[in-house]
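Table S2 (text version). Query chain:
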Amino acid sequence: MQIRKRVLAFIVILALLIGGVSTYVVMELIPFNDEAEQIDSGEQTITDADYEKMLDNLTEAITLPKVVQAYMTIQNEYIDTVTEDELVEGAIRGMLQTLEDPYSEYLDQQAMEQFTESIESSFEGIGAEVSMIDDRVTIVSPIVDSPAEKAGLRPNDRILSVDGESVAGLDLHEAVAEIRGEKGTEVVIEIERPGVPEPLTFTLIRDTIPLETVYADLVESDKGLVGVIQITSFAEQTAEDFEAELMALEEQGIEGLVIDVRGNPGGLLDVTEDILSLFITSDQPYMQIADNDDNRQRFFSSLEEPKDYPVSVLIDEGSASASEILAIALYETIDAEIVGRNTFGKGTVQQTVPMGDGSTLKLTVWKWLSPEGNSIHEVGVEPTLEVDQPDYYYTPPIQVDEPFRYDDNDINISFAQVLLDGLGYEVDRDDGYFSEQTERAVSEYQEDNDLDVTGELDSETASMIVTDIIDIVRSDEDDWQREAAINILFE
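Corresponding structure-token output:
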């Protein structure tokens, strides 16, 4: 269908943003439940006649002479060539930027494909959830077993450059496009980390990031048999996989359950609903949503009988959005203990609106609230039992250009001192001064690992130290938070 004036299409787009027209809405991020009031998501077919009528109504309902004048002036007078598509897309991006909402964004066709990949099956890249926070590309959470996690990237790391090119001025999806790439290719990322005075550089090999999101374990503790289910994100198959693993654990007679959403950046809210519906009975809401006038909807499950065992939830600063919903909902409804560190603090709901050409608006339209009506936006979920991990869990990887030796002083030496202490080697300080005791600890480590015993911290020694620490973290050894979440089930 052809529209005589591109400017009319431009007005239609503007009208969509201010609520003048309804269109087909895909509720990929919106919760649905048969027992809740349904949110209209029906497809509306728009014909040529509909468009003409719509445009007539628009001319009566809204006037945008300043915008139209700017559009026509640029088209007719600007010294360089600019296409109509560029002006329209630029106008959309500009309007979204004025919202100052990092979660409302315009997804062109390529960005929409990336978004769809992130919730469906797998993709190729480094495996990190990122967001635009204070106009900075920021890591929300690295994905479990991804190159990003293995390299030591952490929540709240701010990306400065990719392969030596600054990401300043790029929007989120432009930055993501630079980070992603084919499996096996190398990418160098420079980040700024809170509390670390100098930028850190990471060299990663991109890989296929599978979205296997549910991992289960059976733990025989001193106090009883405990099931542990880790959810790494809320993707399309997560609820189904979670229920299958839960049933398997229950058949083995678990006396308590730990749900681990540490480092989980969120995902599909309807998936979270399905999981909550396994625990929260129909006599109480498991979640609420509210619009900008604070009109609220409450959502209920159809569950009649509660579980006969206690539940605890593991959280940290990388737990965001759907993870936070799950944690606070279980706390307020079934008295689940929440163990770990304060969460990220994303309490808004986005709606995706297809624009007809493969591009999409992702617009914040609701805030979600806890069962009791509490908002955690920009605050996060506070644990009922705050537990930190050992210091080496939070220590950046050691970066060595030239070997460090006795009497040197560098922040990377302090990283090595913390990590060596975590590996059981005696160090007398962690302030970055290469003391005689640090030299002895390095020598002992080198001897134990068949390295040249020089007492100097070279790149090979540093790399092996980091690898050994990662192995400890991945093996759950010294996982103080998990241990606390298991123990609190029986108190």
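Notes on Table S2: The first strand starts at residue 105 and ends at 107. The domain at 392-474 is CATH 1.10.101.10 (Muramoyl-pentapeptide Carboxypeptidase; domain 1).
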